[in-house]
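Teaching assistant here, posting this on the class forum so everyone can see the example we discussed in section. The complex has two components, and the goal was to see what a joint structure prediction looks like when all of them are supplied at once.
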Amino acid sequence: HLAPGAPGTARGPLLAAAEVLALDDEEDDLEVFSKDTSLVEVNSFSPSVPISPSSMINQYKFEDGPELRDLFITVDDPESHITAIETFITYRVVTKTTRGEFDSSEYEVRRRYQDFLWLKSKLEEAHPTLIIPPLPEKFIMKGMVERFSDEFIETRRKALHKFLNRIADHPTLTFNEDFKIFLTAQAWELSSHKKQGPGLLSRMGQTVRAVASSVRGAVKNRPEMFTEMNNYMETFSQKINLLDKIAHRIYKEERDYFNEMKEYGPIHTLWSASEEDIAESLKGIASCIDRCCKATERRMAGLSEHLLPILHEYVLYSEILMGVLKRRDQIQGELDSKVDALANKKTEKDLFSEEIGKLEDKVERANNALKADWDRWKQNMQWDMRSSFTNVAENNLRYYEECLATWESFLASQSVDLHVEEDSEDRP
Amino acid sequence: MEDCLAKKMEITVSEAEKRTGRNAMNIQETYTAYLIETRAVESQSEGHCAPVDSLWRRYSEFELLRNYLSVTYPHIVVPPLPEKRADFVWHKLSADNMDPDFVERRRIGLENFLLRVASHPVLCQDKIFYAFLTQEGGWKEMVNETGFQLKADSRLKALNATFRVKNPDKRFTELKHYSDELQSVISHLLRVRARVADRLYGVYKVHGNYGRVFSEWSAIEKEMGDGLQSAGHHMDVYAASIDDILEEEEHYADQLKEYLFYAEALRAVCRKHELMQYDLEMAAQDLTSKKQQCEELATGTVRTFSLKGMTSKLFGQETPEQREAKIKVLEEQIQEGEEQLKSKNLEGRDFVKSAWADIERFKEQKNHDLKEALISYAVMQISMCKKGIQVWTNAKECFSKM
């Protein structure tokens, strides 16, 4: 089965909130992307492909108009694999595309979590100052969700789906070669390709350097803009973590409320069995409470489907962003230390000027890439927050409106009874 | 419909005051006194307000009044008092008798009690009740002088009767079952309602945290700032709204509680019937056995085994004179017994008749009141939903502007 549309894309509204957002917002987003030519990175920016056939759009039921999207990815069908050494889950990744660089227009592969990890690290390697979307965590400690429970697998599947789609939506990452291989290669092809890349040691080296640079403290030549970003991210990270906790707590309270309500309604039915005159009223109350109970359940589901995953994603994003800022600092640090070293050796300046030049370019590229991606990320974040919280508000509205209708109809039924009673009293 | 006191007199329990004093054991204690205000209704129609009489009473005096009424009118379903101690509380409410909210709800409950008594066709005419409302000093002595405590049936006696009665009126047996069921189901309902209230409180209050965090977050956002800030404000409003909502629900709970306690009053009437019926059955049994004894003595045949019969057989017969004397005594007793039985029978039938009349009156009152209470519960839910819709509509608008 195909997941209903790809959540998380900045270009189209989340399905649930589709009716809410004005079309001009969406158009603004599109404008931003088509004008965005400042990204110059390892993979060159290909000329944009003509607009995708509407048939593909219909298939995925996008509520808005035609998009610039030409790559459609879904992650579904988790399957358990048991070998002598381990048990793991694979997910089916289906890709549909009209891009020329893809040999075929449709691909179906199976990937396991490890493969996603590999992809993420390749992307980070290739684009150290781009904001790579978050992956779901390896193992969730809190919430007592077991490693292979259905709920855990489903949550992970949704997050993986989002991960790939966010990459597909990214103007630079979408053309990354490893990404293409991830989407198209058969299992054995991917294995052999994985072995080719820089090994574990080089990755460790990067980490060590990153740690070392952070130990050195704030980079002295850091442009004001990035200091502002750092400050912003520190506060943002704090707040988003709090919101994540609050949202989870609300979910828990709603669930506890639901559990008590389940017991509340039936007591009225029980009571009605000993009564005559008020039996109908009691049964009416019981049915109202039961309906409100179901409405609460729906409200909870809405929360766990939309807000909770988004907030969690942005908790992870805040960590990623702090990492990206550090890597930028590290790149600049390389330049700065080389410049410092050179300051003492006036005689060898010429020899190193080329090297310095290259480093300066590297820093400039890194800064530009980050700045552009940052702007894009902020736009997306604003968009995601707006739609998620609007969705929460709508969930609550729907809940209260349902309950209101239930109680009002009960009240109406009671007045009918009252009128009947009054009439019978009037009769001589 | 007879003119009951409630129609002639306005009764309110208007204030509650903390007092300290020495009790019967000369120990310092703190208690609450309630101000009862009364005003004759008739004179108001003449355009000027009648003067208000008032006096202070404490809960124990209300209890004394109720005990007096229960004993003096055992065939009446006597209105119950509000609870002595806070029961079925959910966590925010304190179980402390001195808590102002509890005192306030008790004040309303006591007023309700007085109004119930004042509108009862029989009870409202009671002099002691009238004095309770109007005579501050010497009321306690007045009550005790009635000697009602002596008329009270012992619990043990009543329990005994309940177990051993053979032919109670079926309607009372059914009523007893009904009151047991009523008590059980309302208790259960109140317990769960308290838990539901607790949870609902939690849901609303946690939303208040959104307000604080949104506000802090808005400080670092340029475009989203306003939307976040104002949305946060609405979350605060939402969180605060639960306090009034739940307080109103407490009044609903109190209405149910009254009928929970009424169940006990119903049972009391049933117990009285069983006691009277048992008494009657015992008297009849006694009479029958005396008649039998008489017959045995007269005819000389022993129909039933008795120790006396055995001993007289063993140790010699009585003289004819002794026998005659015995028969005479028995005949007198039988005569008395028959008269007593007659009057007991009459009493019993009168009791059943008048009790059942009051029970019918009670049933109508109960159905009316409970139905109204259920409707008021629905009204409260509707109001809560409307408030929720308003807040979330506002919040949605703010979110959409983020």
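For the discussion questions: DSSP finds eleven helices and three strands in chain B. Chain B touches chain A through 50 residues (CB under 8 Å). Think about how each of these relates to the inputs above.
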